[in-house]
Amino acid sequence: MTNVIETNKLTRKFNGFTAVDSVNLQIKEGELFGLLGPNGAGKTTTLSMLSTILKPTSGTAEVNGFDVDTQQDEVRNSIGIVFQDPSLDDELTAYENLDFHGMIYGMPADERKQRIKEVIELVDLSEKINMQVKKFSGGMKRRLEIARGLIHHPKVLFLDEPTLGLDPQTRRNIWDHIIEMNKSEKVTVVLTTHYMEEADSLCERVAVIDHGKIIALDTPEKLKHSIGGDIISLEADPGLLPHLKKIKNIKKIKNMNGEMNISAEDAEHVIPIIFDIAQKNKLEIHSISLRHPTLEDVFLQLTGKSIREEKAGVLDRFRTRIRSRNR
Amino acid sequence: MNKQISGIYILWKREVIRFFRAKSRVIGTLGMPFFFLLILGSGFGPAYQAQSGGGNYMDLLTPGIIGMVLLFSSIFSGIRVLMDREFGFLKEIMVAPISRTSIMLGITLGGMTTSTIQAILFLGVSLLVGVHLNLYGLPAALLFMFLISASFVALGIAIASKMEDMHGFQLITNFLIMPLFLLSGALFPLENLGAWQFITFLDPLTYGVDGLRVTLTNAPGMPLWLDFTVLAGFCVVCILTGAFLFSQRE
Fold first, then answer.
1. B91-138: per-residue pLDDT in tens?
2. For the ABC transmembrane type-2 domain, which residue ranges apply (chain B) (predicted)?
3. Nearest CA in chain A to B17
């Protein structure tokens, strides 16, 4: 598979502050790729550079073989973008918003008409097509924006925090639509998110970004695997400890007053073994629980902090308020 | 090239759709000029008649109010770019593969159209209340309307490109729009200003109002070629400035 996006030491500074720091990325054709990181990590700035909204301070990036700095129009023609904040004209109907997009991208009339029908069906909004967008719910607006981003047959679709501010049910619905259009349109999707579950259940590969640098890049499975498998919490007779150390799949044991935190691979099959040993040696088990690592654990291990710890600044809170007002 | 034109066209169309969508707005925009005409017209009418020796103040006022309608609605439709930024739609426009100049031209043409429609609607209303207008002068008056509105939409875009948000809006109304309006001779004959009259020649709207008054009421005024030349020059400067400042924004 060929790469549709390649960056080389892509960097952006704002008045001396480095928002994106020498980022090297290769994104393959047809991939559903995620940029995961806390607020202010540089996700949106990276996306803005790839979509020619911001110019890189240094380094290069190619999208569909076009340079984002010197071939802006070619890049813009070949990409679709869904911004973090809503960007529809509320006064216009869904159809008019889509038609506006098709025209400003220079599509001929009959192709435009046909394509609007296709994309509106893809996001299940056919029945609302002549409704003014100001009567739409937040989730419907998002879906319409995704449809709009697809009209001009882009090779890459950028989604900046596609489910920010939406309720869990709507979020899942948007995920389904993203997966579906990734498959049926064969479009490469690059999304940013600070939701762990979103990156995990949606993306084929995830780049974890913090302070403008990519600190890990792999499939969600492998990323989670990298921190040493599943976690078994065990409350039992301390006499069990020497026996546990002999089990092959157990990588690490942390013992705190009879409460053991065990890192193990293939933990589902380790638990019966632990019970067998306990029974044979007549040792008591008080409680046992199994937890699969999440990307949250990965982020915690890599940075020493939790993604959710990041306090929203005044500006972020204000943005959220504006956003909820507009939705 | 084709792409630029279809982009300009759809930007124009959006302005027109939005204008006609809100019926209340169409009526609302006619309210203020109508009250200006009726209240100022009847309040100052007798005094003007006495001073000018039998002149009809409503006839003098109407082209002035048309100028006012054009000035206000044009600058506001230029400044509405700020609203588009606030509500996110500007991003959708900015990432499209058309040039900034085309975007600016599309918005200008759209604002020009909606402002001129408002001016024509008001002109119709003024005929209904009995103002005497020379309708043969309408084609020439239309030309002046286009020039006035194009200039001030472009000026509005230029200002909006330099503003961060709507906070400076009051400032612009008070220190730009009102002086432009009051010094243009829209409300009274400029000779009345006496020694101050020279300032009015610095106001581009003076030439617009004069052009409208001469074409629509056959009133004596400056030569039309002068009105046209000054206004056309101002229009070109505004469009170039607007296009430049608008394309400067990242």
1. 999 999 999 999 999 999 999 999 999 999 999 999 999 899 999 999
2. 24-249
3. A92
Query: A50: which 2 tokens?
Result: 């790839």
Task: Specify the CATH superfamily of domain A3-224.
Answer: P-loop containing nucleotide triphosphate hydrolases (3.40.50.300)
Per CB distance under 8 Å, which residues of B are interface residues toward A? 2-3, 6-7, 9-11, 14, 17-18, 21-22, 87-98, 250
| Backbone Cα Rg of chain A | 24
Contact residues, chain A, for B97 at CB < 8 Å? 72-73, 76-77, 105-106
What confidence tens digit (pLDDT) does each residue in A123-173 have?
999 999 999 999 999 999 999 999 999 999 999 999 999 998 888 888 898
Q: Does any CB of chain B come closer than 8 Å to the CB of residue A90? A: yes
Kindly provide the ipTM of the predicted complex, given to two decimals: 0.90
> Residues in chain A with pLDDT < 70?
1, 307-327
Cβ neighbours of A80 in B, within 8 Å: none
What string of H, E and C letters represents the secondary structure of A8-38? EEEEEEECCEEEEEEECCEEECCCEEEEECC
* CATH ID of A228-292, from 3.30.530.20, 3.40.50.2300, 3.30.70.980, 3.30.360.10: 3.30.70.980
Residue B174, number of CB atoms within 10 A of its CB: 10
Domain borders along chain A are 3-224, 228-292
